[in-house]
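Researcher: We are triaging several targets before committing to wet-lab work. For this one, the compound of interest is S-adenosylmethionine. I'm pasting the protein sequence and the ligand SMILES. What I need is the predicted three-dimensional arrangement of the protein with the ligand bound, expressed as structure tokens, so it can go straight into our comparison scripts without reformatting.
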Amino acid sequence: MNTSEFVKELNNQFFNGELSTQFQDKLQQLPIDRPDVFAFVQKMFALMNKSGMPAKDLSLLHADIMGTLLARILPGAWEGRVPPITVHGRHSVIDQYIKKNHWNSSEGKSLLDIGCGFPPVTTIESANFLSDWKVTGADPSLPAYLIYDEEENYATLDENKSTVYFQPAIPSIEYWNKLLNNSTATKKRFENLLEELLNHPNNEGFPRLEIHPIKKYETEKLSFIKGGIGQIDIETKDVIRCFNVLYYFDNNFLENALKWFAENTNEGGIVLIGGDWAASTECYYNIYKKNDIQLINKEFAFSLDCICPLSIVTWYAVHDDDRQKAELVKYISIIRKDKYFMDEFYTFHDAQRLKYKICPRDKEGYYGVIDPSIKPQELWALGSKLLTELNDAGFNQKAADVLRNAGFRTRVNEVGHIAVEPSSTFSS
Ligand SMILES: C[S@@+](CC[C@H](N)C(=O)[O-])C[C@H]1O[C@@H](n2cnc3c(N)ncnc32)[C@H](O)[C@@H]1O
């Protein structure tokens, strides 16, 4: 099947043939040589469909992200490895939640951030915010070498001096494309630059080389270990956070991960698993509490913007049996079916999009493009602002009420997320 046929079929199957022509045109950029990308997009469309997303709520930014960025960030672009992508400020609201939440009753203040990514910017931010905690970051792909080129794009390389991952200084679609148009050449360029910098070290400015770069982030309160879930020996912790990791794996992996988390959490401590995009937008997570050697699932929580997201984490699932995504989509679909709520939501939210020039509706009613004067670094901060405004206007509480009326026990939690009480347990 070629790309046009694929897009046409998706449109008919999941959107009643109502996707805009512009949206479909942008999807023509999907790389035909990447069946993993096609399969992923199909799964995303199925989740959108389940969540009750109409074609008009898909923006041209979504189409750009799907058409170009997605192929760059899926494991298929990195020989099947999960890329260590992370973003400044991504978990700031989760850090606040760890500080404020009422579930944690263990005495200590130790946190494991497993699958912390590299550079471990979110772990460092957590250590700064939770300043009286001991924080440990762990990840199987902590590199032996880190190189910045003259434009401050960076690459990580392993002990064999092979490029594992690279990322543009500004991770926008345009800058990604510059590096990824010929990814083999980019990898080779970084490998050559490594040899050059090993022979002629450069201590100032760019290009720059760091050997065993994780060391420089370590402090008395912050340490790092190379290794993943089930692979490292650690003292038990009061909090384990595993974010933007498990959506790459199937349910069997998740079940085993929960067992390992249970073994490595102190009695009364908590485990947070989930994901989010930049600036803590599109946030969703389960909170487990260790009680009598078991992890008890206390809540599933999500940020309101998941019902009409600017980006794609809401539907980001590599496997069909991703149960967190299934749960998220279930709640979104219930909220979206409430016409009274949605009418009020659209009135407020569409006015926000117009005001901040972030994908406002076009003449036909489809969400469109971002104003080109908005810099990539500003976009997600604005996305977070939209979410704060929605919460301040009480839409998180209203959405929680919709779910309550549908029979769920809900609350708005300490950080403004809609939290739903579930019932399931995992034993260590
Ligand atoms: C997308 S990054 C997420 C980084 C960071 N936690 C964040 O939320 O921004 C996913 C990370 O999961 C790591 N990973 C892959 N397999 C893992 C495993 N078995 N256990 C723990 N982490 C793993 C990858 O190396 C990668 O750094």
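Researcher: Any quick observations?
Model: Residues 251 and 323 are 7 Å apart (CA to CA).
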